[in-house]
Amino acid sequence: MSQARTIAQALLAKLLTRETIVALAFVVMLIIFEALTLTVSFRSYITKLEQREYVIGLGGFFVVFISWTWAIFFFRASLTSNYGTRVFCFLLFVVAVFFEYGYQNAFGRFSTVEDLRIALFDATNEQRRNSIIVYADWRAAIPCVAYAILLLRFRTRRRHSWKTLGIGLVGLACFLSLISPYTSGQFPTISLDAFLRTAILSPWKWASAYHGPRNAVNFSSPRRPQNNIVFVVDESIRGDHLGINGYNRATTPYLDELLAKGWLYNWGIAASGGTCSEKSDSLLFTGMTLGELPDTTFQMRRLPNIFQYAKAMGYRTHFLDGQKDTYWLGTSYDKQYIDDWQPAPSFAVANDFDIDTVIARRISEVVNGSTGHFIWVIKRGVHYPYVTTFPITTAAEWQPSDAAETEIDPARREQLINTYDNAVKYNLESFFRALAVSEWRNQNLLVYTSDHGQTLSEHGERYTHCGTSMETAPTEANVPLFIISRESLSVDNQFRASHANLFATLLDLMMFPKSERQHQYAISLLEAKAGDSRPRHFWVGDLYEKAFNGRLLFDQ
Ligand SMILES: [Zn+2]
Questions:
Q1: How far is the CA of 539 from the centre of ligand 1 (A)?
Q2: Which CATH number fits domain 235-553: 3.40.720.10, 3.90.550.10, 3.40.50.410, 3.30.479.30?
């Protein structure tokens, strides 16, 4: 008995070293500091316990406990390790903390697997640079300095070095890999763990996705198409800031003219699929509806894309991308369906804010030359920072307008809105005037919307879109939707439209036979009547992740 007690005492003495106590205290202080400065909530687990869903609730707390315990192990190991290991631990901590505080600053949450994919593969260098400048949170320096002081106060020893650290990282990787099917990677923890979580879960989430070719469209039209179809997806244009939608500022004089001539069929304010470009574009590309989300069987990567349908109808397909220099829409199989891919560098112009004008001229050349073209356009639009999207010296109609905005300051909200409206007006006027609709020679149909709307600091937000809260997200899903056609269309624009209606609309404009369609798509705008309107929704969750239902109501 006394021997057992001696062993227990010896074990306790070994564990309760000065390093362990300091590591424990550091983790506790980190938890408190981040609870006060960041958005870290245990609410969902408490709700689960209240709803008597003990497995999910307690399981969640267990995962949080493991991640905290792991952090104590990490800091303890680093305090007693050799010089090289310490430098590595410190650099890992700095990268993790700045990365996660940046996402917290931007979106009020830690990074996700999807964020990492977008940051690595989908974003342009310009977007990466801007995001770092806009969202860097210098409060992240506080824990970094505290950690540096701790490391300097402990003598370097050889006892714990690469081997211990390696075992710790492998252990964390094994644990997160085991739970990867059951987590969306958003459990509350500290920033270091959140960063490692995103890094470790990413390959698992990517590996479990479908990576094969899309379903084929087994139809081939015997006739050549007699029209041209242009589908324009704008960037960050909020529906209720357009003059044609009743905004109190005349942001769209040229579109007003088209409306007066009867050439513009306006559905007013529509609901976008998502509040982030990538989500909305994926939904538009395949015609998937929100009722089919989360997409746990990867239909988004299996259903035919719009280019496949266009090619089946004999269209020459074009993809004009005003934002990116590499191909990114859909999967790696999708580029083969595009006959003419024109990335952002092919619209090079003296000022980047005139890229959309160059795109409009390019569209005019194609559609006035011949019929049989299907063109998908990703406009450059007015992505934040707005000052880079219009000439501030000549087009700042609403004042005061920011001249050099580097971050969103809710205290200067009026300036933010003025700058945004100046950007919207310059961009839409220059783009649509360059399309020269009155000079169109063929039957051209242009379907227009934006990928998402915008939050303009309504509740003190420092981000502009990709939000998930019910409070702000509806303005981020608020997008314009209209068709420009000089031939008359018989439509009922009292129907409350969403992005979901656009896929079937494009198929109808191509005259793709209904019986040959591969999927049950939402109703086309050429068919929908006011009475078909239903409460509209949009998606803020992960497209593929079942752990989180991300459907929010748009019509309040
Ligand atoms: Zn966007």
A1: 14
A2: 3.40.720.10
